[in-house]
Amino acid sequence: MKKHKIAVIGGDGTGPEVVAEGLKVLAAASKKFGFEYETEMLDWGGERYMKTGKMMPDDGIEILKKFDVIYLGAVGHPKVKPGILEKGLLLKMRFELQQYINLRPVKLYPGVWTPIKDKGPEDIDYVVVRENNEGLYMGMGEFKNKGAKDEVAIQTSYNTRAGVERCIRYAFEFTRKRNKRKQLTLCGKTNVLTYAWDLWERTFYEVAKDFPDVKTDYAHVDATCMWMVKNPEWFDVIVTDNMFGDIITDLAAMTQGGMGIAAGGNINPEGVSMFEPIGGSAPKYTGKNVINPLAAICSLGMLLSNIGEEEAATAVEKAVMAATAGKIKSMSAGKMGMGTTEVGDYIASLI
Ligand code: IPM
Ligand code: MN
Questions:
Q1: Is residue 159 scored above 90 in pLDDT?
Q2: Domains assigned to the chain
């Protein structure tokens, strides 16, 4: 039997705490379903950067390539200037490991409060496929006359046909496999961003020809935000670029009960993928045993599916559903009716 090799990066703030609960659930699932794994804990992140000036070893990416999958807590340290850890660690891993898909399920679990009146779990259940390697995130651009009165700052969205096509193709395949409403919505801004979204739109309808069983749909990003609140049940799968995907998935997370439950995966379908809660490191809650580990636990569920442990992945999903319908009172830090570690124990016991 194959032994899964899992790299674990707890990261900053509450990252290590939530990951620890995910690992409890992993241990329970391995016992129940009889698969084997080994973990290696990597101390990469803000603390290490503060101490040594390096957030990861120089050959960090090569190290990661030796694993089957990566489990990540959170990146972001209050004492490190914004952008340094994000670019030097998180985006570096996403880019250099070619995790070109950021998969973000938006699912309202039973018993979880949503700010959207009159909508329930049957209405809020869709998936955002976010392009994860290009767009505005490439960091392309320049200053002209920096600091002067006539300063200009240019930030470029870089989109390649190949990059856009592989993302869209993945989204179509995913929609087909998900087999729910079999509808894929392209979320863009074709009326204003007439270079990038022209390419996206053309590619979308060309690739669509290979998927006659999947219904296509288009919505501008602003309208998408509106429908996500007003009629979330209209969505099945949404595909979009890196920046729009970042923004709409925070809105989506709120509709599913908050960052405490929002999971995601950075996926390279041909390589090493990385699973993480979509929220930040929430440093103010560090060490208080109040942060909600469910997002990390749901990410662990996605990780299990990625390494082929489908039964275990389904069990994690079911355990989380039972827990939200059961004893867990709220998704908010400090209001769960139990501590971080108790939530982990509870889910593990339900596996
Ligand atoms: C996310 C985060 C990151 C992003 C930040 C931390 C760079 O907000 O995973 O959504 O913008 O992608
Ligand atoms: Mn984000």
A1: yes
A2: 1-100+262-351 (3.40.718.10), 114-256 (3.40.718.10)
